[in-house]
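Onboarding guide, step 5: your first structure request.
Type a short instruction followed by the sequence, for example:

Predict the 3D structure of this protein.
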Amino acid sequence: MDLAFANGSPRRLSDVIASGAVWSPDARQLAFTRNSDIYLANPDGAKARKLVTVNGFPNDPHFSPDGKRVRFTLKNMPANTYSLWEVGTDGGNLHPVLPGWRDPPSECCGVWSTDGRSYFFVRNEIHGSNLWVLREPTGIFERQASGPFQLTTGPMSIAFLVSSPDGRKLYADGYAPRGELVSYDGKSHEFLPFLSGISAGELDFSRDGKWVAYVSYPEGTIWRSHLDGSDRLQLTYPPVSAGTPRWSPDGREIIYIDAQPGRPIKMFMISAEGGTPEELLSENQTQLSGNWSPDGKQIIFGRVPWLRTGSEKLDIQVLDLASKKTSRIPGSDELWQPMWSPDGKRLAATSADSRKLLLFDFKTQQWEDWIGNEKSLFVYITWSADGTYLYFDDFATATYRRVRLGQSHSELVADLKGLHRYIGFGAWSGITPDGRPLFVRDVSSDEIYALDVDLP
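The system replies with structure tokens like these:
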């Protein structure tokens, strides 16, 4: 962990490795989170001791004004939920702050007012994040907290709360998300609006090239239309937050992932004409990167490295649609992001750390290392329509690249360092049927607001 000063360069704070950290009000202690643990240490990070281990991933710790408690956000990866928890600085009395308030919970990022009378936090909803306050008990005649009470509403999301030292203001990030769909012109090296620059991403094109399915941002709903935008139809609705639609080879169905708080990310299928979605595989595990076999009889999918539980394996599975049975791709342990080649002969995937790109031959049933090194980070791998190239986003170098089948080195397609990208379900990228790269430019409004605090 690094410490930055307003008038100097950052310096290392002991050997602390953390996902979140905060000093106590008297600056005598440092609380920080790492993996599933919360630690206390000296203010310089020395003599760290484990305070508590929780079932999930804690982050954003904050001391109570009296320094006797630590509240934090707890992320439950399998259930896809956020909740607020508290523990004493002696490691005792670990408990949720708002037990049973909302199901599923989706609260995070809480801070106390300076006098400890109010506890502000954010609740994440489908269409944005709003500010709430919990009024803390003040003495022996008031033992129960009152509220929570909602303080903001509207299209702007609230995040990253900081209370002023005098307690009269609350500083917050106000964010109104919006993307602009763009394609990259290799001749002019410019990013040009695609589909009129709609706020959408995660596009997939039907095999005949006449239709496109996409995810609308920030709503997280799936739509389909002709390439000129006509005959537009919404396929999914809140509270579903949907992603990565994939057309069936015959153009009749679309599979997608359904992400809802309180349950793992799952694959669903829906008719391209709309209707009731069908859950593809009933299991209590995360499913991602589903795509069709060329004959439309099977679906290949993977897991997510950072969402798996202790008992969940990371591998690649094939679902037979007729029997609803799954089989495992041999040798696919610790691999993910599977993409079936258009001719059905090969399968591309990446290592769990996304540093290596691999290729599976269905005839020989063998994997081979394709390309990869410590300086690359392969995401959103996509085959060209003819299966000659595999395109990918290299997050490590902020470039979009492709590698030709049979070769062991990639070539630059687009430099992305000047493109401010929208972060939906990751900073998505893809290609059109004719090979034009697609991205989502971030045109959101994002400002810091000072909110006057005047509570009874």
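Each response can be followed by summary notes, for example: The chain has a mean pLDDT of 91.
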